[in-house]
Amino acid sequence: MLVGISLENKLQNTGKPKDCADEMSQALLEVASQRCKRSYAKIFGYFAPRLRSYALKQMGNEALAMEMVQDTMANVWQKAHLFNAEKGSPSTWIFTIARNIRFDMLRKLKNRKEDICSDDLWPVLCEQTPDQNEVSLEEQVTLEQVGLLFNSLPDKQRAVIEAIYIDGKSQQEVADELAIPLGTVKSRTRLALQRLKDMLEDHD
Amino acid sequence: MINYHPTDKQLQQFAEGNISPALALVVSAHCDVCSQCQEKVDDINIELSSVIENVRAHDFKDPAFEKMLASIMHLPVIDTKPVVAPRIELDGRFFDVPRPLQRFVKNTGNWSHLLGKVWQAPVDLGDAGEANFIYMEKGGRVPEHTHKGTELTLVVDGEFSDGLADYDSGDFIIMDNEHIHSPHSNAVEGCLVFSIVDKPLHFTSGIARLLNPFSHLFFK
Ligand SMILES: [Zn+2]
User: Fold this and answer.
1) Is there a single domain that holds both residue A106 and residue A16?
2) pTM, to two decimals
3) How far B174 CA sits from the closest chain A CA (Å)?
4) B63 to chain A nearest CA, in Å?
5) What is the average pLDDT score of chain A?
6) Residue B31 CB partners (closer than 8 Å, separation 6+)
7) In whole angstroms, how far apart are CA B142 and each of A42, A79, B116, B162, B211?
8) Quick check: B92 contacting A, CB < 8 Å?
9) Residue A125 CB contacts under 8 Å (≥ 6 apart), including other chains
10) Could A120 and B73 be called an inter-chain contact, meaning their C-beta atoms sit closer than 8 Å?
């Protein structure tokens, strides 16, 4: 027994996968927002034993398997705020973390001195917002201010910014709607925000 | 418009993590700009993760788990902040690069004029292969060559042709000893690519053959 929290492992026998995913999503949210230890214990009780069986198959070694479980579950605790239920289920998220941990562990075992690590290859544990301009702009200015400068943007950039920042659509939705690649939406967003930022700085 | 994608098998290996670091890097960079392949990878991830759901769970009464749980909950939260995306600068022009390649941008201070209108900035990947950002100005051409090993290329920005096909930003290209090509760009804006080779190139025509003894010095 640990600070009054008991390990729960009952979930594996109950409910449908969907119910379980919802329950785990909720638990992850509570870990992210309140550092809820009870919720974390629930997640741990469900996933750690499964990860251990999986890791043992992958690594073929009990000690390495436990290291893989430990590192994976530590990431879940420390970076729960990076879980996004809209992007996938908790088990997919945790699986991809385990995949990354395993990749790095295997490279380390081979003593490779490579300047490549899983964080670069699979953006599982990255912030959703890749661009500083988007963040700092949102912090610094109101949409209203930006709106005043809006009309000077090129049409294509304005359409994208409008869809994302006014209609609240995701970049992917905008890409689908305009039938253009996601990369183009991203670069138009970036260019437009940079332009707006430059204009705002000129205004100051 | 992206026309050249990794194969489904390569995407599968990428999602599994059973892939060489060099190939993973170029596939990852491609997926960063290709929503079509990213969606495929997302689907494969979902499929793969069902293993976790379906595996017979290890007995959780093992005291090792309780110890592990306690030690993990002592760890602090790791607050990750989005970083400013670095861009490549060459002659006053700035290029956005796919996220997986951004960490290597800081190593590209040393652009060297290679041949004619072709520029190169080496990137240190350790044992994973010899990587370069290569920029072809309009009219720039890499002499015709084949490959002793594998050459992986991602078009970062611009368009080029190589006698085999025409490529555009985001295209994923894999070449080996069965391919002879001569990359050149006729685009006004030129073309920036990221390329990894595991063995030196072998130049095949005309005076460029004279380069072979030195090919390990560049385009490695
Ligand atoms: Zn693709």
Assistant:
1) yes
2) 0.75
3) 18
4) 10
5) 78
6) B11, B14, B37, B38, B41
7) 58, 45, 9, 9, 11
8) no
9) A75, A79, A82, A97, A100, A119, B80
10) no
Out of A89, A99, A115, name the one closest to residue B125 (CB): A115
**Domain extent for A176:** 143-203
Q: Considering only the beta carbons, identify the residue of A78, A91, A116 that sits closest to B21.
A: A116
A124 closest CA partner among A150, A92, A166, A153: A92
Interchain CB distance below 8 Å, A132 and B124:
no
Assigned domain for A182 exists: yes
User: CATH number of the domain that A112 lies in?
Assistant: 1.10.1740.10
B108 touches chain A (CB under 8 A): no
CB atoms near residue A74 (< 10 Å): 18
User: Above 60 in pLDDT, residue B169?
Assistant: yes
Instruction: Report which of A38, A94, A124 is spatially closest to residue B53, judged by C-alpha positions.
Output: A94
Q: What is the number of domains present in chain A?
A: 2
Three-state DSSP at B151 gives: strand
Reported as a pLDDT band with limits 50, 70 and 90, residue A1 is very low
Model confidence pLDDT, tens digit, residues B99-155: 999 888 876 667 887 777 888 888 888 777 888 999 999 998 888 888 888 999 999
How many beta-carbon pairs under 8 angstroms link A with B?
Answer: 182
Best CA proximity match to B201, nearest among B191, B188, B190, B215: B215
pLDDT the model gives residue B107? 66
- The larger pLDDT score, comparing residue A138 to residue A23, is at A23
- Could you list the beta-strand ranges (E) of B74-187: 87-90, 93-96, 112-115, 118-124, 130-136, 145-147, 151-158, 160-161, 166-167, 172-175
Share of chain A above pLDDT 70, in %: 71
Task: Give the chain B residue whose CA is nearest to the CA of A191.
Answer: B96
ipTM computed for the complex: 0.87
Tokens 């562990």, residue located: A105
For ligand 1, a single-atom ion, which residues have Cβ within 5 Å? B 5, 34, 36-37
Q: Mean pLDDT over all residues of chain B?
A: 86
User: Is residue A113 domain-resident?
Assistant: yes
**Rounded to a whole number, what is the largest CA-CA distance in chain A?**
63
